[in-house]
Design brief:
Distance between the termini: 9 Å
Helix content: 25-40%
Oligomer: single chain
Largest sheet: 3 strands, mixed
Structural class: mainly alpha
Mean pLDDT: 73
Strand content: 5-15%
Length: 193
């Protein structure tokens, strides 16, 4: 299964139309550093050595990038990259560290799922703690996730390993297990066949 370009564009448009702040109560560099190693991603501005410097310059110091810049910045691969990275990004926008208001997180999750369902995916928050589940939807009904996990994981709760494909492009391999499962400190990654 693949999250299509149309679905990604629909999600980005919905975030903009609903005026959702994707970084929540965190600075944009803070939420992105939960997924990516910003210091290993190259700069697109010759005055800085890495993506962290770019973000500071253009979103904090000058504030001259659009609100939706992150979706179109190829370094982050949200528009054309791996499904796992895109879903991790969506889950981060719902995480209690990022979004304290449970009602807002639930509303965002419903919006995400309405759009993701077209491609057979959904994001499922449980007890206000997002759990990344990739499910195949049949006849409008989501099936249960199949054990085995996202590529780069060992499929068990709390034991997410680095996705070596993503780690080479600035994805933080050490942050793969940050999504909490019911306050137990364990994470869960799952994928449908």
């Amino acid at each position: 299964m693949k999250i299509s370009q149309l679905t990604r564009r629909d999600l980005i448009d919905a975030i903009a139309a609903e005026r959702l702040d994707w970084s929540g109560r965190l600075e944009e560099s803070e939420i992105l550093s939960r997924i990516y190693d910003l210091e290993s991603l190259p700069s697109t501005d010759g005055r800085f050595k890495d993506a962290a410097g770019d973000i500071w310059q253009h979103r904090v110091n000058n504030f001259d990038w659009d609100e939706d810049w992150v979706f179109y910045d190829s370094r982050f691969g949200l528009m054309n990259g791996d499904d796992e990275i895109f879903l991790r990004f969506l889950c981060e926008t719902l995480h209690p560290v990022v979004r304290a208001d449970a009602t807002e997180a639930d509303r965002m999750c419903q919006l995400f799922n309405q759009i993701l369902q077209a491609d057979g995916f959904e994001v499922d928050p449980q007890k206000r703690t997002p759990i990344l589940l990739k499910r195949r939807c049949r006849n409008g009904q989501a099936s249960y996730p199949v054990p085995g996990g996202i590529p780069g994981t060992d499929g068990r709760a709390g034991k997410c390993r680095a996705n070596t494909r993503g780690a080479g492009r600035g994805v933080r391999a050490d942050r793969a297990d940050h999504l909490q499962l019911g306050g137990t400190g364990r994470s869960r990654c799952g994928r449908a066949p």
